[in-house]
Amino acid sequence: MSLLCRGLTVCLGLMVLVCGPALAGEVSSIQVRHGDGTTVVDLQVSSSTDPSLFTLENPQRLVLDLPGTTLGTAEPSSSAFDGTVIDGVRSGTRHGRDLRMVFDLNAAPGRPEIDTESTGRGEHIRVSLTSSDPIRTLADQQSASTPAHPATPAAGGVRDIVVAIDPGHGGHDPGAHGDNGVQEKTVVLGIARQVVATLNRTPGFDAFLTRTGDYFIPLEKRVDIARRHKADFFVSIHANTVSSSRPRGTMVFALSPHGASSTMASWMAARENHSSMVGGNGTPLSLKGRSKEIRQTLVDLSLESKISDSLSAGRDLLKQIGKVNRIFKSSVEQANFAVLRSPDIPSLLVETDFLSNAAGERLLASSSFQHNMGRAIADGIEDHFTHLPPMGSLLAWQKEHPGEPVPGGGRNRYTVRPGDSLSVIAARHDVSTRTLKQANHLAGGRAIQPGDTLIIPSA
Predict the structure, then answer these.
(1) Peptide bond into 59 cis (omega under 30)
(2) What is the pTM for the complete model shown?
(3) Which of 119, 121, 129 is CA-nearest to residue 81?
């Protein structure tokens, strides 16, 4: 039996005939993705709508309302929800013009999230459901299937160091803003792009963005993206405001498992965590099936190692950032930022400057400052991994074999020129456009720009 009620679909068609003109929008596709304890339902709607989401109990259901929308012919396959918290989906119309989709659940979900993004074809709606267990299994993470964009070996037997760069906020969450209207979400994306471009020009690194445009990603999903790419390091980039217009300069934060290292760190962490309404403890790691004592011991050991690496990297970042901007705090601060709570990936949060300060706002809005700050962050990351490269990486091999040629010669990189397109570059290097997109994490249709550096995978 179909997951979507065919009878209701027929009724929808009859209602359109009776009521006259077709409704404003139509759901043209429904896709389901599942991994790391999260189920994501992606819907493509032909025009804008104002979706709403809520849950019902006894039995457990998730209800999605799409005003002024019809279902069309979109329907997930019968196996689309296998292994997820969703058993099936039903649909119908309300008030003769609004689509209601009811997802039958086999367990109580964590806090559902909904995000919308305007596209050239209408609107993309993303509904995310996490397991009600706030943490996942370590063993599942270690034995997980190949990620959507796995790190490609840099040369024979050695690999690149994978770095996730996370531009804070986005979409309906603009973050902080200055008196002249400069928005955090915009400036940090510009800085993050420069970090990625700089690292990808550096042999031995493979960097990518958690978001490539102006759309919203919940805090916990940002680390999930890094984990799917098997990132060695995670850096979240922000720009903040405080009640005073006096503070100026950069701050670098690592996770503190027992509280913030200063009043400023505590206040900023509370502000960032609240901005995206992260619920629970936010920790994306689980030791399900283990005793309480073992769970706590393993998490503590993982956190201790991760925080030590993060603090070391933070000091290297501060040295480089100090060359291009004032430093507000000379040491790495520690706070309980939700986006840093991942025991398996060392991570930092960089508050690039204060939008509440007039000089800071002017700098952050400057493309030259964004360029210099991005390069400085990238240089700090490179410094850290040059001294402490992960096992199996190209940098580790070079440290053990100084002066020797790298086996296989490493991967090719190409700097995008004016007039280039992905298809042209792919044909020039005898690879498929799809392979080129996968190697450079260009999901979502992000356009390339002159000056971007692309990894050219082996044909």
Answers:
(1) yes
(2) 0.57
(3) 129
